[in-house]
Specification:
Blueprint (H helix, E strand, L loop, with lengths): L1 H15 L26 E4 L4 H18 L4 E3 L1 H4 L7 H4 L3 E6 L12 E9 L2 E8 L2 H16 L7 E3 L5 E5 L29 H12 L4 E3 L12 H14 L5 E6 L3 H4 L11 H17 L5 E4 L16 H12 L4 E5 L11 H9 L10 E6 L23 E6 L15 H8 L13 H4 E7 L14 H13 L5 H12 L4 H22 L30 H5 L5 E2 L16 H8 L9 H4 L2 E2 L10 H24 L7 H33 L14 H6 L9
Parallel strand pairs: 1-2, 1-3, 3-5, 7-8, 7-14, 8-9, 9-10, 10-11, 11-12, 12-13, 13-14
Antiparallel strand pairs: 4-5, 4-6, 15-16
Helix pairs in contact: 2-5, 9-10, 12-15, 14-15, 15-16, 16-20, 20-21
The chain binds beta-D-glucopyranuronic acid.
Subunit structure: Homodimer.
EC number: 3.2.1.131
Pfam family, one: Glyco_hydro_67M
Length: about 700
């Protein structure tokens, strides 16, 4: 113990001189000195000469040297053509061995790994990472490093991902802007690709591999046809070459009308032979450049995008045509985020109505990609009714990692807790209990929050959302709290005086945002375009279902969207057992109350208070909780570096001010509808409703 403490002090002193700018660039892969340093291997023995095997060895070398302060060597016996441990001095070093199984281990699949410590070779304890394929060695290396970084004893571990597809979706445009991006510009420097070999692309791949992400869609779902032209395919191929050793396949979003725009055809009808031939030739051209190309992501017949319905064909016709072009080389992810221009139907119902009749008609290499909720990435949404309603179609979950509706990169909202809430919801697919969302999905996509900002995600805490997404895509049954704990330990410090309160704060943070933005199941209250500040009064947009007033329906008598049989009937799209959870306002979780019910202001809530009072008090609590985050954080100063402490403090100041703004503007507006007095002790808004309505944010990012 004493030896370790002295060693750690020495190590800290040694590394203190090396200027580490704590600007967040290193993410959770910081590899700072650890207490267990003296016990850790000094030698990596690599029995796999693939680029991925080498990436695994060099990550171990990088991590172990930084955490122990010692030189860590890589030995490649295969390369040298001789048996390992022939040099007695080398042989006596503690070592970690990376080797592929001679006989495949069926429990590991293609991407799993096994970590085992115990075999003694030449009197030295050896830790062995084994896998069926090289990518398993890389995942195993990161898992081993994670155990060391988080201060745990290295445990024998066997692990494999539960989901096959674990993808980031970049909503990046070819001009370098990022739709709903709050972390700078696009990472992809399309202008200088394919020549540019940015080290940042390697670091991007390392970070993703460390959490098990195995694919990336490079461009925006609102896609330009140009991304399929030959020069852009070559640029995408350069990125694919960089990502390949890290197990990350490249995918592209495609514009359905590309055969017209690029091919000069008169139609993009998916059943037209010339259109089909165009896509097949395009796919062949891509595979000639990117042999392991992942496939296509498609937004069709949604928000003005072209699609098969333009030719009176179905989503399945469109998806299957692209699936045929890819063949068994790749996958089509066809998005279910659709709503028709002319339909007066509750938007909540439209995707279900369009897709459930198609269940069982999609080609085997098609997944339907469904947003977590039926409206649009709101601070809280019930799970999408398509989960559990398409048993014959593989479904891909789409979460937003970027916080379009949760305060961009400035407000602290840990989304791991949100993802967990959705993944653990029971769909009761075909009336069976325990068919949670996690059980019914085949893959997970996260709309990336990554850009050119030095800290990648626009704020230090938003890194946790990228991290949590990856860890849950690997295992959708994992605990959001455990993931937050792991992340905090790797990203900041293992000191419990920091980790405990910070993890508590993270776990509560998204509830706080929901309280001051969209309490009690309210939704879609954001101002036009930027979706940042409040706009519950907005009623002037061309489509009714783009207006917040359409969703809250507040008037002098009450508030809320009736989705029961008396209202839009959207509740009936869930399995009857799932419906039961939300059918009765008296017994349901009130955090979803006004999502499903329109109630009078006098309606008595669980607290015994009338709905009006409850609404105001929830707004008020949200604003107070947001302000309190600053006090919790202030106590963390002794445990972390000044740079990140200050960066987080600044964001929390902004959040506290804006949460108060949300509270005040919302209370002022809803009071203009209810005409009621504020509950006793609640401070009135600082300004008039007209003042809040007059605020404009023309330069908000991400539009
Ligand atoms: C909405 C975004 C919009 C996206 C759209 C989508 O506001 O920018 O294009 O979703 O997912 O949330 O297609």
């Amino acid at each position: 113990m004493v030896v370790r403490a002295i060693w750690l002090c020495l190590l800290m002193l040694m590394t203190a001189g090396q200027a580490h700018a704590e600007d967040g660039y290193e993410l959770w892969l910081r590899y700072r000195p650890v207490q267990s340093a003296v016990d850790l291997p000094q030698r990596v023995v690599l029995y796999d000469e693939s680029p991925t095997g080498r990436a695994a060895a060099s990550e171990l070398q990088r991590g172990l040297s930084a955490m122990t302060g010692r030189t860590v060597s890589i030995d490649s016996p295969v390369k040298r053509g001789i048996a390992m441990n022939e040099d007695p001095a080398e042989a006596r070093k503690k070592q970690i061995v990376l080797s592929r199984n001679a006989q495949p281990d069926p429990t590991l699949g293609a991407e799993g790994y096994h970590i085992e410590t115990g075999a003694v070779e030449n009197h030295v304890l050896v830790t062995r990472i084994s896998a069926n394929r090289d990518i398993g060695l890389l995942y195993g290396a990161f898992a081993y490093l994670r155990q060391v970084q988080t201060g745990q004893p290295v445990r024998d571990t066997t692990d494999a991902p539960r989901l096959k597809l674990r993808l980031l979706n970049h909503w990046d445009n070819l001009d370098g802007t990022v739709e709903r991006g709050y972390a700078g510009s696009s990472l992809w420097d399309w202008w200088r690709l394919p020549d540019l070999k940015s080290p940042r692309y390697v670091d991007y791949a390392r970070a993703n591999a460390s959490i098990g992400i195995n694919g990336t869609v490079l461009n925006n779902v609102n896609a330009r046809a140009e991304s399929l032209t030959s020069p852009y395919i070559v640029k995408a191929a350069a990125l694919a070459d960089t990502f390949r050793p890290y197990g990350i396949r490249v995918y592209l979003s495609v514009r359905f009308s590309a055969p017209i725009e690029l091919g000069g055809l008169k139609t993009a009808d998916p059943l037209d032979p010339a259109v089909r031939a165009w896509w097949k030739a395009k796919a062949d051209e891509i595979y000639a450049q990117i042999p392991d190309f992942g496939g296509f992501l498609v937004k069709a017949n949604s928000e003005g995008q072209p699609g098969p319905q333009d030719y009176h064909r179905t989503h399945a016709d469109g998806a299957n045509m692209l699936a045929a072009a890819l063949g068994d080389r790749g996958t089509v992810m066809w998005r279910a985020f659709v709503y028709k221009g002319e339909v007066a139907e509750d938007r909540h119902k439209q995707a279900y109505n369009e897709f459930t009749p198609l269940d069982g008609t999609f080609a085997p290499n098609v997944l339907v990609q469904v947003k977590n909720g039926a409206i649009d990435f709101q601070p809280r949404e019930p799970f999408h009714p398509l989960f559990g309603a398409m048993p014959k179609t593989p479904l891909m979950m789409e979460f937003q990692i970027t916080k379009e509706y949760l305060g961009f990169a400035t407000h602290l909202a840990y989304l791991g807790q949100y993802y967990e809430e959705t993944l653990s919801a029971d769909t009761f697919e075909r009336g069976q209990k325990g068919r949670t969302v996690a059980q019914v999905i085949s893959g997970m996509a996260g709309v990336a929050n990554i850009g050119t900002d030095r800290n990648w995600s626009g704020s230090n805490f938003d890194q946790a959302n990228w991290y949590a997404f990856g860890r849950l895509a690997w295992n959708p049954h994992a605990s959001a709290r455990d993931i937050a704990t792991e992340w905090a330990r790797m990203t900041f410090t293992t000191d419990a005086r920091f980790v405990r309160p910070v993890v508590d704060m993270m776990m509560r943070s998204r509830e706080t945002v929901a309280d001051y933005m969209t309490p009690l199941g309210l939704h879609h209250l954001m101002a036009t375009g930027h979706h940042y500040g409040p706009g519950p009064w907005v009623d002037n947009l061309s489509r009714p279902d783009w207006n917040p007033v359409y969703y809250h329906k507040a008037d002098k008598d009450g508030i809320g969207f009736d989705r029961t049989a008396k209202g839009s009937g959207a509740l009936s799209q869930y399995d009857p057992l799932a419906q039961a959870a939300w059918a009765n306002p008296q017994s349901m979780d009130e955090r979803y109350l006004l999502w499903f019910h329109h109630l009078s202001w006098d309606y008595k809530t669980r607290s015994g208070r009338p709905l009006w009072d409850e609404l105001v008090l929830t707004y008020d609590r949200g604003a107070r909780d947001a302000a309190a985050l600053q006090d919790i954080w202030a106590k963390m100063q002794p445990y972390i570096d000044a740079e990140r402490f200050e960066a987080v403090s600044a964001n929390l100041r902004i959040q506290a001010r804006e949460a108060k703004g949300w509270r005040d503007a919302s209370i002022a507006y809803f009071q203009s509808k209810s005409g009621r007095a504020l509950p006793a002790g609640v401070a009135p808004p600082d300004h008039s409703l007209d003042y809040y309505k007059s605020l404009k944010f023309p330069f908000a990012p991400g539009i």
